[in-house]
Design goal:
Layout (H helix, E strand, L loop, with lengths): L8 E5 L4 H12 L3 E6 L2 H15 L3 E5 L5 H11 L4 E4 L14 H29 L2 E6 L12 H21 L4 E8 L5 H14 L3 H10 L9 H11 L11 E4 L9
Parallel strand pairs: 1-2, 1-4, 2-3, 4-5, 5-6, 6-7
Length: 259
């Protein structure tokens, strides 16, 4: 299906690998020009080259920390007029809330709540003026089903979810949509890190922890970043103009609730 976004331009954050890369590649396959951002310059350049080679679209690569004002300024300047915004930043560390300092809470809020809000603030009026805009925030399945050891993430991402719930209804009439994609266990470096942390805490070997995690996922596997990217591309499509303020859960059926 033609998603009707060929010739648009997207800013995709955290795009050098994992879920961000999956989103960037899926959009590029639809003919969307890209500005991709990540902190690791070498990996980002490699990703940009691979996307250019496969799709032929223009890909600007900006090595910067999107959670800092100067990093956002670099990315926004490189991107120009942005039709599609995909926000994404690495999750904060796991642990026990008793051990987290105020500085760690502020860092989590900066990365996973305030940075997306700042990027939306910088791009939303242009989208409204052009009467087309798609914002997709990569958050976490923990917004629906909090994970005790990920309290920093639970809190920060839930704050963003509440903000989006209000704002999305204000701009929908302008053909600007804002939605959240909630990944569960996808085969990314983030998941590998959590498995390693569990292995260290429990004394179980990595493969045992990995198989235990797969076992509690009804799909019987971890998600593929490519399928996550395809879902992102749909939410950014012309056809998705009637979908806004939603939390699109992709967790292989792990969440047991009806709603």
């Amino acid at each position: 299906m033609d998603l009707g976004i060929k010739g648009r331009h997207a800013l995709v954050c955290g795009a050098s690998k994992g879920l961000g890369r999956g989103c960037a590649l899926a959009l590029a396959r639809e003919g969307v020009g890209l500005t991709i951002v990540a902190r690791g310059e070498a990996e980002l350049a490699k990703t940009a080259a691979a996307i250019r080679a496969e799709t032929g679209v223009v890909v600007n690569a900006v090595a910067a920390d999107i959670t800092r004002p100067e990093g956002r300024a670099l990315a926004l300047a490189a991107a120009g007029a942005i039709d599609i915004l995909v926000t994404n930043a690495g999750g904060p560390p796991s642990g026990d809330f008793r051990d987290w300092s105020r500085d760690q809470w502020i860092a989590a809020l900066d990365a996973n709540m305030l940075t997306p809000i700042e990027l939306i603030k910088a791009t939303l009026d242009g989208m409204i003026e052009r009467r087309f805009g798609r914002v997709v925030n990569i958050t976490s399945a923990a917004v629906k089903a909090p994970i005790a050891v990920l309290g920093l993430s639970n809190g920060a991402r839930s704050g963003l979810t509440g903000f989006v719930a209000g704002l999305s209804r204000q701009v929908a009439r302008h053909n600007v949509t804002i939605n959240n994609l909630l990944p569960g266990p996808f085969d990314t470096d983030r998941l590998k890190g959590l498995i390693a942390a569990t292995s260290k805490a429990t004394g179980k070997d990595l493969e045992t922890v990995r198989q235990e995690r797969i076992k509690v996922t009804p799909a019987g596997r971890f998600g593929d970043p490519a399928e996550f990217g395809d879902a992102c591309a749909y939410l950014c499509s012309a056809q998705a103009g009637f979908v806004t303020g939603q939390n699109f859960l992709m967790d292989g059926g792990a969440y047991p609730g009806t709603f």
